[in-house]
């Protein structure tokens, strides 16, 4: 399913001219080796992208597809690093660098020997006359030579023309790539007869995976193999399909504007037909990455229309179009699939809109996010004082999958949120929103709908919710009686009050009476009315213990009452 969707994406990208044909791929190049007709290296020029970044970035070129290298010495055609094209030793292994240069020389002779192209002949003359052991003497006359020898990718430029633009060389490479010398079988992706490849091209751009590239499909241990098959012959994929799905995925990962990371998971998405506006809108709706062509009001309006199944012609968005989301996680030399989602674009927007509605809760004046992005929600489960500030990868992936599909939120999301509340004695907007959303989607009678409101529900008589409100009033009384106090009752008693109220609230009642005596008559009467109203809802006794859903009600009551208090203070000022 995943490989078929990526192969279809490749065909859509080819129709748009956004990606090369089979045998060609985008590669990042830092320097060009400029040679003359005699094969002499005249200069080395940098090839960096023109952008505003402080660190120069290599330019992208459409070049012959790279080989899949592990420890085997095998050269790319027309481009590679300095070990292959110059024989430079940058890793303290001169013998291996010499073998790399000889491998590149042999490959270029194999493909270019019969060509009449002047460019091809110049490249062959370069390989025949270049002496890697004497190259260091040229570093004085070529300042960029030392930089180019540090491991950056290089390509050939002959008499001002890039070698890969020569038509004769292009045909030679295409014939070489298309030649089939293996047994043909039926491809699992296309269903057509094709040569089966033992090793698929590498996937680059997944955070945490090998920078040289990792495999999405791989069989490199006997435990994974069956019926005597080796490598990817266990799951036969044709040469065309292997190139197509890897080229499409590498194309998605190369555009960092449309790549998002949560935990250790790298997320890419695409629509059928490869229309880019769907990617931009999805990342804006889910991660808060707004584009230049819409603001927050436009985003919310379009999201509601798509959720209702209505097209948005001004943004060229069709709710019936098939949409895909793929989450990839690093796994040594392989890439593991954290999640894969496929559905109509309108259904996805309906699920995302429903998630935002569940997460909607009264917002503090200092909070600048109208809606809580996914990354911000997951950060509420993390200890911000720890060295690793990434959310739990399994929990993050499960939460994202629940939002995409509209399924139940994972229990770990609530558990880790409550753990942070107990550890920090802090209920932020995000944490209160997670509690509200969790119990709206995962109902529990101990955290009823009457407490799962956007703002304070003064009509609710739920004991745990009322206790949370009462605790907030007690805290307000203490702060009014002792302005600037360092440690409040929240710092000392919050966890105990939320779990065993019968043990703590009598103590808080006594403390509150002492604090009230320090206030002016008007303030005292105002607070006493609130306390009498809340204690009247609770009855004569406090609950002995509160379970986890009841603690969620307690936390929401505290958050709602506190925000109401700050709102009242702001209005008074």
Spell out the blueprint of helices and strands.
Elements: H1 2-16, E1 24-29, E2 31-35, E3 41-46, E4 59-64, E5 79-81, H2 82-85, H3 94-112, H4 118-129, H5 144-148, E6 153-158, E7 161-162, H6 167-178, E8 184-186, E9 193-195, H7 239-254, E10 260-262, E11 265-271, H8 276-287, H9 296-307, E12 322-331, E13 334-344, H10 345-359, H11 374-379, H12 393-405, H13 411-424, H14 429-441, H15 463-481, H16 489-499, H17 501-516, H18 521-538, H19 548-572
Parallel strand pairs: 2-6
Antiparallel strand pairs: 1-4, 2-3, 5-6, 6-7, 8-9, 10-11, 11-12, 12-13
Describe the structure.
The longest helix is centred in the last third of the chain and has 25 residues, at 548-572. 45% of the residues lie in helices and 12% in strands. It is of the alpha+beta class. Strands 2, 3, 5, 6 and 7 form a 5-stranded mixed β-sheet that branches. The chain contains 19 helices and 13 strands. Among the domains are: 21-179, no CATH class; 460-573, no CATH class.
Q: How do you describe this structure in short?
A:
By secondary structure, this protein is an alpha+beta fold. Helices cover 45% and strands 12% of the residues. Strands 2, 3, 5, 6 and 7 form a five-stranded mixed β-sheet that branches. Strands 10-11-12-13 form a four-stranded antiparallel β-sheet, sandwiched between helices. A two-stranded antiparallel ribbon has the order 1-4.
């Amino acid at each position: 399913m995943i490989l078929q969707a990526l192969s279809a994406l490749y065909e859509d990208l080819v129709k748009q001219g956004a990606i090369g044909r089979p045998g060609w791929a985008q590669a990042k190049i830092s320097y060009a080796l400029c040679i003359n007709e005699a094969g002499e290296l005249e200069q080395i020029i940098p090839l960096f992208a023109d952008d505003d970044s402080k660190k120069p970035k290599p330019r992208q070129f459409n070049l012959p597809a790279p080989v899949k290298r592990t420890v085997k010495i095998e050269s790319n055609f027309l481009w590679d690093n300095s070990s292959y094209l110059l024989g430079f030793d940058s890793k303290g292994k001169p013998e291996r660098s010499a073998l790399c240069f000889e491998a590149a020389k042999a490959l270029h002779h194999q493909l270019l020997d019969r060509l009449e192209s002047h460019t091809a002949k110049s490249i062959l003359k370069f390989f025949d006359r270049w002496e890697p052991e004497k190259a260091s003497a040229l570093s004085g006359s070529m300042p960029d030579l030392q930089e180019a020898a540090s491991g950056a990718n290089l390509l050939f430029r002959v008499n001002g023309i890039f070698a890969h633009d020569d038509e004769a060389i292009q045909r030679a490479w295409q014939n070489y790539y298309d030649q089939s010398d293996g047994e043909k079988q039926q491809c699992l992706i296309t269903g057509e007869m094709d040569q089966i490849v033992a090793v698929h091209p590498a996937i680059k751009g997944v955070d945490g995976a090998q920078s040289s590239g990792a495999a999405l499909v791989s069989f490199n241990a006997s435990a994974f193999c069956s019926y005597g098959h080796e490598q990817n012959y266990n799951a036969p994929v044709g040469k065309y399909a292997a190139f197509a799905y890897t080229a499409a995925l590498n194309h998605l990962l190369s555009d960092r504007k449309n790549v998002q990371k949560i935990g250790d998971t790298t997320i890419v998405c695409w629509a059928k037909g490869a229309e880019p506006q769907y990617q931009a809108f999805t990342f804006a709706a889910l991660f808060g990455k707004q584009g230049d062509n819409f603001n927050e009001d436009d985003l919310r309006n379009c999201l509601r229309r798509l959720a209702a199944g209505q097209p948005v012609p001004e943004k060229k968005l069709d709710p019936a179009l098939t949409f895909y989301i793929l989450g990839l996680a690093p796994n040594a030399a392989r890439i593991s699939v954290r999640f894969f989602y496929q559905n109509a674009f309108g259904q996805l927007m309906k699920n995302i809109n429903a998630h935002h509605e569940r997460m909607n809760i009264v917002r503090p004046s200092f909070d600048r996010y109208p809606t809580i992005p996914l990354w911000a929600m997951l950060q509420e489960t993390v200890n911000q004082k720890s060295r690793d500030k990434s959310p739990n990868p399994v929990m993050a992936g499960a939460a994202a999958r629940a939002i995409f599909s509209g399924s139940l939120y994972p229990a770990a999301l609530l558990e880790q949120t409550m753990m942070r509340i107990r550890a920090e004695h802090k209920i932020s907007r995000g944490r209160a929103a997670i509690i509200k959303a969790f119990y709206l989607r995962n109902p529990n009678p101990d955290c009823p709908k009457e407490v799962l409101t956007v703002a304070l529900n003064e009509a609710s008589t739920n004991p745990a919710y009322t206790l949370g409100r009462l605790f907030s009033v007690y805290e307000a009384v203490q702060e009014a009686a002792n302005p600037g106090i360092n440690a409040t009752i929240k710092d000392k008693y919050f966890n105990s009050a939320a779990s065993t109220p019968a043990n703590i609230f009598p103590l808080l009642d006594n403390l509150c009476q002492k604090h009230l005596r320090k206030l002016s008559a008007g303030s005292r009467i105002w607070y006493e009315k609130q306390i009498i109203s809340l204690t009247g809802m609770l009855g004569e006794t406090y609950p002995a213990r509160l379970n986890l859903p009841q603690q969620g009600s307690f936390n929401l009551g505290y958050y709602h009452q506190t925000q109401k208090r700050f709102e009242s203070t702001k209005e008074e000022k």
